[in-house]
UniProtKB/TrEMBL annotation, chain A:
<dbReference type="InterPro" id="IPR024185">
    <property type="entry name" value="FTHF_cligase-like_sf"/>
</dbReference>
<dbReference type="InterPro" id="IPR037171">
    <property type="entry name" value="NagB/RpiA_transferase-like"/>
</dbReference>
<dbReference type="InterPro" id="IPR003741">
    <property type="entry name" value="LUD_dom"/>
</dbReference>
<dbReference type="Pfam" id="PF02589">
    <property type="entry name" value="LUD_dom"/>
</dbReference>
<protein>
    <submittedName>
        <fullName>L-lactate dehydrogenase complex protein LldG</fullName>
    </submittedName>
</protein>
<feature type="domain" description="LUD">
    <location>
        <begin position="98"/>
        <end position="197"/>
    </location>
</feature>
Automatic annotation (TrEMBL), chain B:
<keyword id="KW-0408">Iron</keyword>
<dbReference type="InterPro" id="IPR024185">
    <property type="entry name" value="FTHF_cligase-like_sf"/>
</dbReference>
<keyword id="KW-0249">Electron transport</keyword>
<protein>
    <submittedName>
        <fullName>L-lactate dehydrogenase complex protein LldF</fullName>
    </submittedName>
</protein>
<keyword id="KW-0479">Metal-binding</keyword>
<dbReference type="Pfam" id="PF02589">
    <property type="entry name" value="LUD_dom"/>
</dbReference>
<keyword id="KW-0411">Iron-sulfur</keyword>
<feature type="region of interest" description="Disordered">
    <location>
        <begin position="451"/>
        <end position="496"/>
    </location>
</feature>
<keyword id="KW-0004">4Fe-4S</keyword>
């Protein structure tokens, strides 16, 4: 007998007298928190990420300013459909991991923002690019539209397509493995800069 | 200490040693208090936390009670999404599957995301025996691996190490296995984390094969979920060409929307954050993005044994948040190593005997590693009634000795108690005998309990098993019944 049939057989035998019926209650919803965008900004900042709020017209200037602010100016990689004509930025051409390691920054859009937890979710469509490009460079500039911000985790789960690879990002990479002392930045981007467009 | 739990002494012996280590107790007390407070703060923020727990428990319970159906659905969804599914009955089978996939790609190293399942099956050691180096990439796991040490906490495996020890391990060992630590390394946590970043980056960039576990496996969509903080998980799940995930069969949840209560419960319960820095989800292969060859190994290794236990089954709901460790007064004092398993603390005290049975002395000692205070049940995000399972497992330990030719002292004591309590004259006699023993003990005892009461330290003979891990208070000289008779319920004489 195959391992598969053996395991499934053991599972069935173990549950022979057990009724499979369990009613799963609908999880409770967080109460109305008022201004979701303000809450989102506050909670993203709680993770020691940087947030800049601006209008659609100002985005290009804001992002350029952030990149120029890096010492020596940043070499940035961008996804194919960023929809922002950033001078000097290189569009991802299926770079290898080692090639991506040569970039200082990445600029992407996002799929959803979650106010309650200060989380940004990427579903890696062409305006966000492959998972690797938003991972290897040390600075991630992420453009989130105010209309993409939802109240809580269940709203995000409803909107997101599980067939897509998803990356949920809440602040910069961090660890508390040394004496429970939180340190920002281990392997992921050490700086997360969220640009909130409204 | 070497990097394996095999041959660890039973809990009372290991605990006695750990209790003598003051540095360990200081590190643990500080760490558990910090996480406890953080958790309490973010849990208090959720108005309907209790309802959320009920929903989380129901999601996992529903998945477990119809597990065969959900596993078959999961397999179908995974295959449809381009993944290859393997089934492993035990640790040896799982390790062999991973080794053969790795060999097929002609590589002699893999990068690993922290995973309890792969630690449980001893995958690193098995791969090493096959000539494959498995690099742990979680910072704490790296500290444990470089220190040739054992993990002592589910979430913070190096909780027993302080910064000076970590600096010393990095300086001494990093150069042996890759990029050395910089010579001017200080013991600042940020500097130590920076050294780990540099050391591991070259491994991430060249790795062909990665190994992960999964926090959840969604049956109807074939989605695996990995919850992490550092980004080492994203590195492993994204950059290599081949990804092998070892997933316990109890990780399954039925539907995509079931992730809702779980993703709200887990981060708040484990690291005490509203959300952990990174969560990755993937369903099989995405063309042009991430690993193009995806394997999933579904692991039993004792889980069906636990599933067959009516009371113990609920332990399989566990989402490894480690909240129960952080509130446990026993864990806080003895630390993780004394449990002799990758699953320490209250959950370990029930999960290990459920997965392995209680025929070995080490597993049989674990259900007793608790004061039954109930704090673990209160914090558990999926409402596992750990105290009830502990009591039931204690019964299982006693039962397993029922046919022994020399019964266990505890069984003898229970039998004697039943005999004495079934007849009031016998009980009166027993109480007089106990009063006499009390007077003798009070006179000769060397130990005094807080409050000044005399206690017996370590008794000889069959009672050694009990007193070896406890100080037994000397019995009072007069029994309650004798006192009641003498004073007519406290109304005659001085009433004392
Ligand atoms: S038993 Fe409950 S509290 Fe303990 S690790 Fe598992 S889920 Fe967390």
């Amino acid at each position: 007998m195959s391992a598969r049939d053996e395991i499934l057989g053991r599972v069935r035998a173990a549950l022979a007298d057990v009724s499979p019926a369990v009613s799963v209650p609908t999880p409770p919803r967080a109460p109305d928190r008022g201004d979701l965008v303000a809450l989102f900004v506050e909670r993203v900042e709680d993770y020691r990420a940087v947030v800049t709020r601006c209008s659609a017209e100002e985005v290009l200037a804001v992002v350029t300013g952030v990149l120029d602010g890096l010492p020596g100016g940043a070499r940035a990689v961008v996804p194919p459909d960023l929809g922002l004509d950033l001078p000097g930025a290189v569009v991802d051409a299926q770079f290898t991991a080692a090639e991506l390691d040569g970039f200082d920054a990445v600029v992407t859009r996002a799929a959803v923002g979650i106010a309650e937890t200060g989380t940004i979710v990427l579903d890696h469509q062409p305006d966000q690019g492959r998972r690797a490009i938003s991972l290897v460079p040390d600075l991630h500039v992420c453009l989130v539209d105010a209309s993409q911000v939802v109240a809580d985790v269940p709203d995000a789960i409803e909107l997101l397509d599980p067939a897509r690879p998803l990356t949920w990002i809440s602040g910069p990479s961090a660890t508390s493995d040394i004496e429970l002392d939180r340190v920002e930045g281990v392997h992921g981007p050490r700086t997360l800069h969220v640009v909130l467009i409204s | 200490m070497t990097g394996t739990f095999v041959g660890m002494p039973a809990f009372p012996t290991a605990a006695r040693e750990a209790l003598g280590d003051t540095q360990l107790r200081t590190n643990l007390a500080h760490a558990t208090r910090t996480i406890r407070d953080k958790r309490a703060m973010v849990v208090a923020e959720v108005e309907d936390w209790e309802e959320l727990r009920v929903a989380g428990a129901a999601v996992k319970e529903a998945a477990l009670r119809d597990l065969a159906t959900h596993l078959e659905t999961l397999e179908e969804s995974l295959v449809r999404a381009g993944a290859t599914v393997h089934w492993a009955g035990d640790a040896a089978e799982a390790c062999a599957i991973v080794a053969s996939i790795t060999h097929a790609h002609g590589v002699d190293e893999v990068v690993k995301v922290k995973s309890m399942a792969t630690a449980e099956i001893g995958l690193n050691e098995a791969l090493e025996a096959e000539g494959i180096a498995a690099w742990e990439t979680d910072l704490a796991e790296l500290i444990v691996q470089l220190g040739d040490d054992l993990p002592s906490h589910i979430l913070v495996p190096a909780i027993h190490r302080n910064r000076a020890e970590i600096r010393e391990i990095f300086l001494r060992r990093m150069g042996d296995v890759g990029r050395p630590a910089p010579a001017d390394l200080t013991d600042e946590p940020a500097v130590l984390a920076g050294a780990a970043r540099e050391h591991l980056r070259e491994k991430f960039l060249r790795a062909k094969v990665a190994i992960s576990g999964a926090n959840f496996a969604v049956a109807d969509t074939g989605t695996l979920v990995v919850v992490e903080s550092e980004g080492n998980g994203r590195m492993c799940l994204t950059l290599p060409e081949v990804l092998i995930s070892v997933v316990g069969i109890e990780k399954v949840v039925a539907t995509w929307s079931d992730l809702d209560p779980m993703m709200r419960l887990l981060p708040r319960s484990s690291t005490g954050e509203r959300m952990n820095p990174y969560t990755s989800t993937w369903s099989g292969v995405t063309p042009g993005d991430g690993p193009q060859e995806v394997h999933v190994v579904l692991l039993d290794n004792g889980r069906t044994r636990a599933l067959a236990d009516d009371v113990g089954r609920q332990a399989l709901r566990c989402i490894r948040c480690s909240a129960c460790l952080n509130v446990c007064p026993v864990y806080e004092r003895v630390g993780g190593h004394a449990y002799g398993s990758v699953y320490p603390g209250p959950i370990g005290a029930i999960l290990n005997p459920l997965l392995r049975g209680v025929s070995d002395e080490q597993s049989a000692s674990l259900p007793y590693a608790s004061s039954l205070c109930g704090a673990c049940f209160e914090v558990c995000p999926v409402r596992i009634d750990i105290p009830s399972v502990l009591v039931d497992q204690r019964a299982a330990v006693v039962d397993s000795h029922r046919d022994d030719r020399v019964p266990k002292a505890e069984a003898l004591a229970m039998r004697a108690t039943a005999w004495a309590f079934s007849d009031s004259r016998r009980l009166a006699w027993a109480e007089r005998a106990s009063g006499l023993a009390g007077r003798v003990l009070t006179r000769f005892s060397r130990t005094t309990l807080p409050g000044g009461r005399a206690a017996a330290g370590r008794l000889p003979g069959p009672a050694a098993g009990w007193t070896g891990a406890r100080d037994l208070p000397a019995p009072p000289e007069e029994s309650f019944r004798a006192w009641w008779d003498r004073t007519d319920g406290g109304t005659k004489g001085d009433g004392s």
